[in-house]
């Protein structure tokens, strides 16, 4: 049997911490708990977990500051982080994703969804980020050929602009992952390309229209950005 993965949970609400601990142990993880940011950072120093669940609103050092700190240090730069947020913290979610958090869940969340997200992230972390340009991405009725800039919907070629293609590729290469508008722009043009949120929305609207029956695969995440639907 594979070695157990370790999850560090940083959460100041005792009930949630206990619930997470119980369910994660049940799901086969080794679980470390911390009820404030300082304790979380201390535990990280002792042992690097495979994944971190990080509440954003913490007494003392907050989740966003922890995120920033971890990404700045080589040892923790690639540690997968799922943020746990309360409703109404969309602005913090956007900031957290841009600081490098991998994903987020809004409380109250289902344990089933959390476990699925964790698996996706852990799998990705072990496979690495590389996208093979010769490997076709197939999701439902949609086929994307990264190396040849080809997109087919239900077998028919779809004519996309270069930008639309890059946006689609960025989203579809990480199904289920939320991208902020800023991250979408970066994936298309590289850093420093000034474009408005509205321009990203226009690209997405055009893309959805051209994708027809596959248009709904691109989902809006209210107040945060967009994500490509995850296919089981
Ligand atoms: Ca909290």
What attributes characterize this protein structure?
Arc Repressor Mutant, subunit A; 4-stranded antiparallel sheet; Rossmann fold; elongated; alpha/beta; 8 helices
Structure description:
With 232 residues, this protein is α/β, with parallel strands linked by helices. The protein has two domains: 6-128, Response regulator (Rossmann fold); 137-228, Arc Repressor Mutant, subunit A. 41% of the residues lie in helices and 21% in strands. The protein has eight helices and twelve strands. It has helices spanning 14-26, 37-46, 63-72, 90-99, 111-127, 162-172, 181-189, 197-211; strands spanning 6-10, 30-34, 51-55, 81-85, 103-106, 137-139, 142-145, 150-153, 156-157, 178-180, 218-221, 225-228. The strands form three sheets. It has a five-stranded parallel β-sheet, with helices on both faces. It has a four-stranded antiparallel β-sheet with strand order 6-7-8-9, with helices on one face. Strands 10-12-11 form a three-stranded antiparallel β-sheet. Helix 3 (63-72) links the parallel strand 3 and strand 4. The radius of gyration is 19 Å and the shape is elongated. The structure holds calcium ion.
